[in-house]
C-alpha cells in the first residue's frame, strides 16, 4: 500500500467525519447524558450501598454498557462514505483519481475507527472524572475501545455489502447492538442458567468487552477473563476482516 496516498486519503476522510456535528452529539454526548439520567434514577431508588472504594457502582455499570452499546454502532459513520463515494454519486470521479479504490476504502474505514476510539476515550474520561465511574485498568479499557471500534466498522461494512442499502444497514446495526447489549445484561436481569450466563460474559463482543473491563479491576478480577475478552474480540475481528475483504473485492470492483 502506498503510505503517502493512504495518509492523504485518511486526512480527507477524518476531516469529513469531524464535521459531522450530529454524529459527535449522538455517539459522545448522548451516552454521557443517558448515563447521568439513569444513574440518578437508579441511585435514588435503591437501598443498597452504591459507593464502593469511592466509585459509584450504578454509574459504573451503566457507563460500561453505554460505552459499548454506542461504540458498536459507531461503524455507521462509514456507511455514508461507502454509499456516496464507492457506490453512487462519487463512484466514477474517485475511480478517475490516481489513488486506488482499495486505499480510499481502507482510509475511510481507518479514519472512522480512529474517530470512534477518540469518542470512546472522551466518554471514559468524562464519566471517570465527573461521575465517579470505575473503569478498572485504563490500558485494558483502551484496548477494548480499540477492538470494539474496529469490530463495529467491519460489522457495518459487512452488513452494507450484503444488503446494499444504508437504511437497512442502520437498522441491522442498531438491532444487533441492542441484542448484544440485552444479552450482556445491560437492560434487565437475565435468567441464571448456563446459556444466559455464557451470553452475558462471553457470548458477544459486547459481553467480551464488558467482561475484560470488569476483570481488569476490583469488580471481578481475573487475568484469564481479560485475555479471553480481548483475544475473543480480536479473533472475531480477523474473521470479519476476511469476510469484508472477500465481499469488498466483489462489491467495489
Give an overview of the whole structure.
This protein has one domain. Helix content is 77%, strand content 2%. The protein has 11 helices and 2 strands; from the N terminus they run H-H-E-E-H-H-H-H-H-H-H-H-H. A two-stranded antiparallel sheet has the order 1-2. Strand 1 (51-52) and strand 2 form a beta hairpin. The protein starts with a helix and ends with a helix. The chain crosses the membrane at residues 21-42, 62-82, 103-126, 138-163, 175-198, 218-245. This is ABC-2 type transport system permease protein. It comes from Alkalicella caledoniensis. Keywords: Membrane, Transmembrane, Transmembrane helix.
Topology record:
Layout: H1 3-18, H2 21-43, E1 51-52, E2 55-56, H3 57-73, H4 77-87, H5 91-95, H6 101-130, H7 138-163, H8 166-183, H9 194-201, H10 205-215, H11 223-251
Antiparallel strand pairs: 1-2
Protein name: ABC-2 type transport system permease protein
Transmembrane segments: 21-42, 62-82, 103-126, 138-163, 175-198, 218-245
Keywords: Membrane, Transmembrane, Transmembrane helix
